[in-house]
Amino acid sequence: MFLSMTGFGRATREFSWGAVTFELTSVNHRYQDFSVRLPRELASLESRMLSSLRSLVRRGKVRLSAEIAWNPGAKNPVLDEEALLFCFERIEALSKERGLEAPSGLTAFLSLPGICDTPRFAEGADLDPEVWDGLLKEAVLSLMEMKRSEGSKLLAVVEEDLRNFEGVTALLAERWKSSSAEALENLRTRIEKVTERFGLDLDESRVAQEVSLLSDRWDVTEELARLAAHISKFRQTANGNISEGRKLDFLIQEMNREVNTMGSKVGDAEFRWGVVEAKSCLERIREQIQNVE
């Protein structure tokens, strides 16, 4: 299964005092990178939201933001008249005692803590934190739906490039069968020319042994076998029950290493062009895998 690291999710819940909307955005990142931006009324939930995100989203750069839409009258300020008058009368008395100018009105006292406050929520609406956990999970479900949709599209693109890569490796295997025979025959011919030119008398079995050793150095059978195993494991991982982008990225690196090794072993021009095409396929796959969770 592929889950894209790019996605967007939203969830809204209605209350008697208004509505709260959680929005999640996710983009590429090698590890977990989460941040939370909440309004003042919900600021105390920040650490709880971060902890929940870490358990719900495996990988990516995820941003959670919240917005409150208050119903009319739900945020009417609360004025403590007794405290206001007490402060005013006390300041007025002190001004007279000290011979200072007394305040001309009550406005200056409204900014004092506890005098005129905006309530966090309408009376009786302080909610259990589990309510916010539920809202966050709804937003995550919305995010995951988009991540799955984007992931299925990525999987289709990757599968096409993987089939192309398999086709190229099959051609490389066929080309190797013919080019290796040609290379060995050319080597034997060169050895015979050298021995003839310098009048050397070489044992035929010794020549065969040297040719055999050199052929082992050119042999790419093991690399082709490992590539087939890597491709099989890649498909198994890609179609598994969970998204494992980092494991897939590692497999692409291993496949690229095998292709590079084959290119360094074989000098045949057609074979090397096939190596270039194989590396192009792997690079296209790698670019897509970078966005898989």
Task: Give the structure's gist in a few sentences.
It is built from 7 helices and 6 strands. Helices cover 59% and strands 14% of the residues.
Descriptive overview:
The protein has 293 residues and is α+β, with helices and mostly antiparallel strands. The chain folds into 3 domains: 7-74 and 122-148, Ribosomal Protein S5, domain 2 (2-Layer Sandwich), CATH 3.30.230; 78-117; 151-289, no CATH class. 59% of the residues lie in helices and 14% in strands. The chain has helices at 46-56, 81-98, 129-198, 204-218, 221-238, 245-265, 269-289; strands at residues 7-15, 18-27, 32-37, 60-70, 78-79, 116-117. Strand 1 and strand 2 form a beta hairpin. Helix 3 (129-198) packs antiparallel against helix 4 and helix 3 (129-198) packs antiparallel against helix 5 (221-238). The chain starts with 6 loop residues before the first strand and ends with a helix. The mean pLDDT is 84.
Blueprint (SSEs and pairs):
Blueprint: E1 7-15, E2 18-27, E3 32-37, H1 46-56, E4 60-70, E5 78-79, H2 81-98, E6 116-117, H3 129-198, H4 204-218, H5 221-238, H6 245-265, H7 269-289
Parallel strand pairs: 3-4
Antiparallel strand pairs: 1-2, 2-4, 5-6
Helix pairs in contact: 1-3, 3-4, 3-5, 3-7, 5-6, 6-7
Entry keywords:
293 residues; alpha+beta; Ribosomal Protein S5, domain 2; 3 domains; 4-stranded mixed sheet; two-stranded antiparallel sheet; 59% helix; rod-shaped
